[in-house]
Amino acid sequence: MRMSGSFTIHYTVSSSFFTEGYSLKLSCRKGRLRLRTRNAPGIRRTGLERAPDPESPALTLPPEEIAPILDILGRVRISLQPLPEMDVTDSAFYRLELRYGDLDLSLRWYHELPGGWDRLKPLLTILEGYASTYGRASGQETDE
């Protein structure tokens, strides 16, 4: 099965009490790579409700950044196994949601990437690089 070049990735990092963190959405459609960030450096929540926080404007990233991401997505293999019990009161939580072709995948973990998920590391490195480089992209020009 040949996969299309279209994908959407949501990546969220937050503290154990959801008081700090960031979220980003990376989407590729028709050869255009777009990035939106949300509330870097803080995702603020009250109970289960997310406090209002507008997304940043979308940035269009260079098209040459698409191929490495597609290469990673084409090689990812994940081994599912229960996570060990751990005191997570002072840990970071991670969520990765991926839509690629007919695949919809949602993963959550805390502290460190679970064993068997190592092939996600290059993708996470790219996403974390975008978060640190672009942060809140407010004020940037967009063509959306």
Account of the 3D structure:
- With 144 residues, this protein is an alpha+beta fold.
- It has one domain (7-134): Mago nashi protein (2-Layer Sandwich), CATH 3.30.1560.
- 17% of the residues lie in helices and 34% in strands.
- It is built from 2 helices and 8 strands, in the order E-E-E-E-E-E-H-E-E-H.
- The chain has helices at residues 66-75, 121-134; strands at residues 7-15, 21-29, 32-38, 45-46, 49-50, 59-61, 92-100, 103-110.
- Strand 2 (21-29) and strand 3 (32-38) form a beta hairpin.
- The longest helix has 14 residues, at 121-134.
Give the tags.
alpha+beta; six-stranded antiparallel sheet; two-stranded antiparallel ribbon; disordered C terminus; about 140 residues; globular
How do the helices and strands line up, and which of them pair or pack?
Blueprint lengths: L6 E9 L5 E9 L2 E7 L6 E2 L2 E2 L8 E3 L4 H10 L16 E9 L2 E8 L10 H14 L10
Antiparallel strand pairs: 1-2, 1-7, 2-3, 3-6, 4-5, 7-8
